[in-house]
């Protein structure tokens, strides 16, 4: 029986482990932290439950497909509820509420800009076509050749790879609030809307068409489900097991070293940070130089606050976006002139608004996220300064006092991403999906220097986000299974 070792236990690693075990390999997972999940871990404190990483459940079809590949359904493992409203966007002088149907969303768009609902329906129709092409054709290709992007469908849409989402949105909508709302989903892809190919408007269909969902108990329920599936399939998972070296003999991978012990394998797949994974190899076996990583465009890092409130909060939904400052300016401070933002946009998540299991009775679980450039200086003083900025704005926009109701707060920022996830420059979401970093232009799933060494996750194909990570695990396992069949 062939043996595979998977480094890390995030979404892409667990996905790869499941597919490889199903194909008959003996699979072991080595995770440096004390719980599985990678960036999608959970914190439970004083009865409050926090997802400390991803908190948006989009593209439910991808999760269903994943479990269906093993003869399962998501409902075998967790309960899924569609959120209504999906989220609320706060502006300086108004709020926009995104409901759970196109009908509700169109009404809201009409309220802001007369005649915009017709443009919206056309825009989402095109986004749906792109979604079907992206998810059923392009995304399922391993990023080995430029020809993978050439299908009869993409050839007809080639102009959409050279126009930006910003251009497309601004052509149809004039009101800046609607523009910001439509440009928001591509922030999940980790680049400015003006630098993201308009083909990626399929994210708008994921948002308005497929809706925003919540697994009861939080996003960590998906990790628990995948862990349980992996173990059913015979995967062995080791936590508290940092890998210190990827072992190579005669240009072929032979295993890993963990805590001074060598563990041998026919295949090694690293779902850990790609840059870090290459540092586990001797210099001569690395594919990418430090200059290479230095010149790439990274998705943002984040400053996060996890807060337990002793009361229920008012005027908020499960997901809330605070776009009450200049969207463009903040984007420039992340991508163009990296610095701590002068007037940050932020996101606030209160899962206990819809899921009582996530906070003690009469309390609220709060998670605040400020997107920032990767690689910034991170000090306790800066965190505190931004905590005050966020809280003051939050109180002002939601018209309530909350600071005096805080039971505890924890923060997480650049230094933590580096320390806990070996994240390059402390990035939170991997490499941005710009035209020059799409598909085959991303770091490869397969090492070009070491035989039988593979990589998976947000720095490789297809890109950042939870659904793409599940797909990344499938793509890498497909390459290995094909290899076995030769």
UniProtKB/TrEMBL annotation:
Record's keyword annotation contains Oxidoreductase: yes
SUPFAM superfamilies: FAD/NAD(P)-binding domain
Gene3D superfamilies in the cross-refs: FAD/NAD(P)-binding domain
Pfam families per the UniProt record, alphabetical: Amino_oxidase
Domain Amine oxidase, first and last residues per copy: 14-481
Pathway: Carotenoid biosynthesis
GO terms assigned for molecular function: oxidoreductase activity
Keywords tagged on the record: Carotenoid biosynthesis, Oxidoreductase
Keyword Glycoprotein carried by entry: no
GO biological process: carotenoid biosynthetic process
Family that this chain belongs to: Belongs to the carotenoid/retinoid oxidoreductase family.
Official protein name in the record: Phytoene desaturase
Protein source organism: Flagellimonas olearia
């Amino acid at each position: 029986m062939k043996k595979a070792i998977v480094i890390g236990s995030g979404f892409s690693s667990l996905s790869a482990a499941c597919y490889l075990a199903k194909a008959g390999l003996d699979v072991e997972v080595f995770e440096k932290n004390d719980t599985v999940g990678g960036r999608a871990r959970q914190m439970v404190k004083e009865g409050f439950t926090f997802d400390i990483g991803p908190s948006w459940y989009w593209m439910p079809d991808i999760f269903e497909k994943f479990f269906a590949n093993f003869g399962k359904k998501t409902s075998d493992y967790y309960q899924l509820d569609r959120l209504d409203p999906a989220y609320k966007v706060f502006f300086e002088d108004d709020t926009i509420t995104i409901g759970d149907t196109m009908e509700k969303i169109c009404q809201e768009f009409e309220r802001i800009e007369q005649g915009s609902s017709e443009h919206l329906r056309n825009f989402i129709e095109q986004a749906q076509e792109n979604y079907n092409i992206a998810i059923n054709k392009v995304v399922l290709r391993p990023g080995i050749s430029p020809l993978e992007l050439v299908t009869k469908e993409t050839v007809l849409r080639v102009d959409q790879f050279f126009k930006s989402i910003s251009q497309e949105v601004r052509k149809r909508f004039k009101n800046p609030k609607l523009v910001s709302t439509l440009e928001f989903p591509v922030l999940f892809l980790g680049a400015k809307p003006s630098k993201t190919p308009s083909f990626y408007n399929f994210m708008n269909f994921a948002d308005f068409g497929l809706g925003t969902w919540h697994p009861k108990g939080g996003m960590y329920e998906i990790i628990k489900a995948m862990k349980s599936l992996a173990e059913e399939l015979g995967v062995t998972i080791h936590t508290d097991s940092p890998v210190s070296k990827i072992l190579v003999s005669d240009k072929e991978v032979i295993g890993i070293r963990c805590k001074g012990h060598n563990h041998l394998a026919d295949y090694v797949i690293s779902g850990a940070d790609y840059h870090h994974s290459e540092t586990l190899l001797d210099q001569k076996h690395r594919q990418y130089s430090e200059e290479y990583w230095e010149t790439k465009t990274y998705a943002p890092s984040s400053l996060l606050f996890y807060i337990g409130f002793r009361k229920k909060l008012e005027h908020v939904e499960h997901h809330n976006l605070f776009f009450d400052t200049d969207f463009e300016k903040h984007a420039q401070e992340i991508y163009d002139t990296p610095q701590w933002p002068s007037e940050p946009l932020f996101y606030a998540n209160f899962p206990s608004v819809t899921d009582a299991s996530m906070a003690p009775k009469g309390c609220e679980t709060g998670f605040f996220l400020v997107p920032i450039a990767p690689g910034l200086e991170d000090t306790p003083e800066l965190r505190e300064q931004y905590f005050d900025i966020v809280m003051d704005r939050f109180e002002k926009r939601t018209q309530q006092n909350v600071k005096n109701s805080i039971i505890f707060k924890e923060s997480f920022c650049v230094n933590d991403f580096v320390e806990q996830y070996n994240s390059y420059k402390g990035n939170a979401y991997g490499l941005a999906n710009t035209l020059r970093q799409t598909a085959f232009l991303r770091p490869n799933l397969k090492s070009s220097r070491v035989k039988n060494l593979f990589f998976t996750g947000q720095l490789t194909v297809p890109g950042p986000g939870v659904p793409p990570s599940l797909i990344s695990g499938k793509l890498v396992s497909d390459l290995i299974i094909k290899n076995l069949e030769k």
